[in-house]
Amino acid sequence: MACRTLETVGITSSLRARLKRGLLFLFSGLTLRCSAVFAQAASPVPNIFKPESTPADDIQRLSVFVLIITALIFIVVFSLLVYAITKYGRRRGDDGSEPPQVYGSNQVELAWTVVPVLIVLVLFLATARVIQSVQEAIPPASAVQVTAVGHQYWWEFRYPALGIVTANELHVPVSDRGRPTPTYIKLLSADTDHSFWVPQLAGKTDLIPNRINSMWIDPHATGMYVGQCAQYCGTQHAKMLLRIYVDTPEQFADWVAAEKQPAQASDDVAAGRHIFESTACVNCHAVTGTMADGRFGPDLTHLMSRATIAAGAATNTRENLKLWMRSPDAIKPGSLMPAMNLDDHDLELLTAYLESLK
After folding, report:
1. Which position among 69, 98, 209, 219 has the lowest Cβ density within 10 Å, counted as fewest Cβ atoms?
2. Please, which residues have CB within 8 angstroms of residue 171's CB and are 6 or more apart in sequence?
3. Average predicted confidence (pLDDT) for the chain
4. Cβ-count burial of 193 within 10 angstroms (0-12 exposed, 13-18 middle, 19+ buried)?
5. Calpha distance 299→283 (Å, rounded)
6. Between 278 and 189, residue with greater pLDDT
7. How far lies 295's CA from each of 88, 120, 156, 167, 281, in Å?
8. How many helices (H) and strands (E) would you count in the chain?
9. How far apart (Å, rounded) are the C-alpha atoms in residues 100 and 198?
10. For 170, phi and psi rounded to 5 degrees?
């Protein structure tokens, strides 16, 4: 018996030591990974407690309300727990006998039934009010209409009234309180479930195949707001990023005018355009003013007007563009972008052509 006890103690100590080492290794790995992500991130980390749009304002106020209630519950329960441990903890000389048991307190049972029900009811009513106010908002005549389509693993943005198609980076006008210009977004999916989430502008809304969902934003301040797909949609779900640029009315009008222009290709990049049109690029991508009319990949008409490529996975530089065409998995493992297998000469020519798409 003694040997078994010592053996059990030894095994337990060994397991504890392994668990400690494993947890330490896991914590160190997560810390290094997070540090690397934040160090390499080209976009600021969104602050969910700094809303810049009416739907986000409503959600933030509801969140603070819920946090206050739950904090009060925690304080009460924790205080009672400390009180019980302090007052009724085992003392020296305690013989270990069980104290007298008391049953059937109607007052206590009524309290721990009614109080939780009231708390849940208050939280339910507060949440329902916010959901109703956001979902039943009626778009004014000045609203900008956008259709967002989720793909594996990128975003397609269409402006039906403006005749514009772009990808991954959404431009909207600022919505002043005296001159409201909200943006209403119709959400569609081309393949699997996605979720559109820009924390500072609105809550999460899913994009579901064969179903139309919608959401709206009315940003109160200009600037760039980051978000991403918040629904696991496959291997590269975590790198299905998006940016929303909130422009002044003048900036938005200029952007619309530029986006309506066809691709301006000079004779200097004619060889690169020929490579683009004679390879599989045209099967997936569209470039206005050319024979390329694909719909499986992003519209490239104004590719160089975007700050990122691969749905925000990399900054839009010449070297990253070449790497993306040579080996997409080097930037986004598991993406559906095929490697073009071009030699260095053709890759340079194709890159030069793509850089002319502004």
Report:
1. 98
2. 244, 245, 247, 252, 255
3. 85
4. middle
5. 12
6. 189
7. 71, 47, 10, 11, 11
8. 8, 12
9. 57
10. -100, 130
Residue 207 bridge partners (DSSP): 194
For the stretch 135-169, pLDDT in tens is 988 999 899 999 999 999 999 999 999 999 999 99
Domains of the chain are 46-77+109-217+230-240 (2.60.40.420), 267-355 (2.60.40.420)
Choice between 200 and 268, residue whose per-residue pLDDT is larger: 200
Between CA 146 and CA 180, with CA 128 as vertex, the angle to 5 degrees is 35
Which of 197, 240, 201, 247 has its CA nearest to residue 222?
247
Residue 163 DSSP one-character state: T
Q: Which residue, among 42, 44, 262, 245, has the nearest Cα to 146 in the 3D structure?
A: 245
Amino acid symbol at 124: F
